């Protein structure tokens, strides 16, 4: 029932439009640094989206293609589409040069997997030209690079003169929407919606939970790779509890929105991160936390 309620909440806030939630196939992610390219893929600048001072400095949130969940020894083979960390975007690794090169190749392959013809969009074409040229020295010599090298952070691309990231351009949105509508896997009855849908093998991590890893916590997780005993009737991972991709996106997006930094719909009760919402829009959602004399700042600061 809780997943159904969260999925319904996502539909509610998406329709209301008051809370800017990502559309299906996308998620909100902090992107501290943006590489600006001209149409030929030549470096034109490096933008810093962060605001604030010291430890309170936070990067701007962008709607980017949904994050790939990486795990295991072959995690380097999984790259995000048109955004990722410095290893994938620039092929840079402090400890393992070969690993960085492999990650960068994975990043390029991911783009070409989705766009067999990058020339369909001038922004995508510019990124591919830049990556295939492989000369990242302008970034490495930029004044912001020492900070990226020290702390790391997500990096994406923007075409010179544009107001959106390359991964937010219409061609990318269309490509992701088409993949979602077509569906490549077997369709089963979703336990949340009761409708036929392609089943989510892995579920998006939930951020901002007290005591959880910075990478996030799992609400639905059956790791048959660790313990084969969890493989009921030969089913692996998420197929043991079939939740459709639409419902998986809806409930994880809703919960991450409720737990996000600055949310008025989360409080910390002991060691429990507690969220609340109403079936219909109501002003009580904005003031309910005040009844307990607690605010988000008195609890955990979500990542």
Characterise the protein shown here:
The protein has helices at residues 2-16, 86-90, 97-114, 122-133, 137-140, 145-151, 170-182, 245-259, 284-287, and strands at 26-30, 33-37, 43-48, 61-65, 83-84, 155-159, 187-189, 196-198, 266-269, 272-275. The strands form four sheets. A four-stranded mixed β-sheet has the order 3-2-6-5. The protein has a two-stranded antiparallel ribbon with strand order 1-4. A two-stranded antiparallel ribbon has the order 7-8. It is built from nine helices and ten strands. Helix content is 31%, strand content 14%. The two termini are 27 Å apart. The longest helix has 18 residues, at 97-114. By secondary structure, the chain is α+β, with helices and mostly antiparallel strands.
How do the strands line up in the largest sheet? 3-2-6-5
Biggest beta-sheet profile: 4 strands, mixed
Output the helix-strand order.
HEEEEEHHHHHEHEEHEEH
Question: Tally of extended strands?
Answer: 10
Poorly predicted runs of 5 or more residues: 297-303
What is the 3D form? globular
Distance between the termini: 27 Å
Can you give the mean pLDDT?
87
Radius of gyration, CA atoms, in whole angstroms: 20 Å
Provide the structure class.
alpha+beta
What is the number of helices?
9
């Amino acid at each position: 029932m809780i997943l159904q309620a969260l999925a319904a909440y996502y539909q509610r806030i998406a329709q209301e439009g008051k809370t800017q939630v990502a559309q299906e196939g996308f998620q909100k992610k902090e992107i501290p640094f943006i590489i600006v390219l001209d149409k030929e893929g030549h470096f034109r600048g490096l933008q810093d989206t962060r605001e604030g001072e010291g430890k309170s400095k936070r990067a701007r949130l962008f709607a980017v293609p949904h994050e790939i969940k990486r795990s295991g020894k072959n995690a380097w083979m999984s790259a995000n589409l048109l955004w990722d960390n410095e290893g994938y975007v620039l092929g840079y690794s402090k400890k393992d040069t070969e690993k960085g090169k492999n990650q960068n190749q994975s990043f390029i392959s991911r783009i070409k997997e989705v766009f067999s013809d990058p020339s369909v969009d001038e922004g995508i074409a510019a990124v591919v030209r830049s990556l295939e040229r492989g000369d990242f020295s302008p970034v490495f010599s930029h004044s912001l690079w020492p900070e990226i090298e020290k702390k790391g952070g997500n990096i994406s691309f923007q075409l010179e003169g544009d107001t959106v990231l390359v991964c937010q351009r219409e061609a990318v949105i269309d490509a992701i929407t088409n993949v979602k509508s077509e569906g490549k896997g077997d369709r089963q009855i979703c336990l949340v919606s009761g409708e036929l849908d392609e089943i989510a093998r892995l579920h998006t991590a939930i951020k901002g939970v007290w005591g959880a890893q910075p990478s996030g916590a799992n609400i639905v997780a059956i790791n048959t790779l660790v313990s084969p005993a969890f493989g009921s009737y030969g089913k692996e991972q998420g197929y043991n509890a079939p939740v459709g991709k639409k419902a998986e996106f809806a409930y994880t997006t809703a919960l991450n929105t409720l737990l996000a930094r600055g949310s008025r719909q989360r409080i910390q009760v002991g060691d429990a991160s507690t969220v609340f919402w109403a079936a219909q829009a109501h002003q009580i959602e904005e003031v309910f936390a005040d009844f307990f004399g607690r605010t988000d700042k008195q609890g955990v600061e979500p990542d």
